[in-house]
Amino acid sequence: VQLQASGGGLVQAGGSLRLSCKAPRSILSSFSAYTLGWYRQPPGEQRELVAEITPSYSTNYAASAKERFTISRDNSKRTVYLQMNSLKPEDTATYYCNAKTSNVEDWGQGTLVTVSS
Questions:
Q1: Which of 7, 64, 114, 116 shows the smallest number of beta carbons within 10 Å?
Q2: How far is CA 11 from CA 4, 16, 42, 59, in A?
Q3: For residues 105 and 103, what is the distance between their CA atoms, to the nearest angstrom?
């Protein structure tokens, strides 16, 4: 699986961004079976889960993301989204998308989000 993440950039505190991550056409038939997630890695820190969405559309959020971020998926477009509102400087990180099943796991290349104060 070769995931393509996009949508990062520079935004002021309080602003919004929407990240997208698209999977290749080669997995179109099985995309709906993947649990999709967004992780982030702040500078000098470890990668951490931000949000994930299961094949049944159940969602799970890190405490820091609840009430501000929304993960969603469009299986017909092979895409997972992360809508980020009320951004804070501490949200600055490289954001990675992830796709996994019980047998496979893959990561996108990362997209940088910088939130200025």
A1: 116
A2: 21, 7, 16, 26
A3: 7
CB 84 within 8 A of CB 17: yes
Q: What is the pLDDT of residue 1?
A: 53
Sheet holding 17-22, edge to edge: 4-6, 17-22, 79-84, 69-74
23-37, 62-76, 98-112: least confident range:
23-37
Q: What are phi and psi of 93, to 5 degrees?
A: -175, 170
Report the C-alpha gap between 33 and 99 in whole angstroms: 10
- Cα Rg, the chain, nearest whole Å: 13
Distance CA 54, CA 52 (A): 7
The token pair at 40 is 């982030």
Query: pLDDT tens digits for 64-100?
Result: 999 999 999 999 999 999 999 999 999 999 999 999 9
Contact (CB, 8 A) for 82 and 3: no
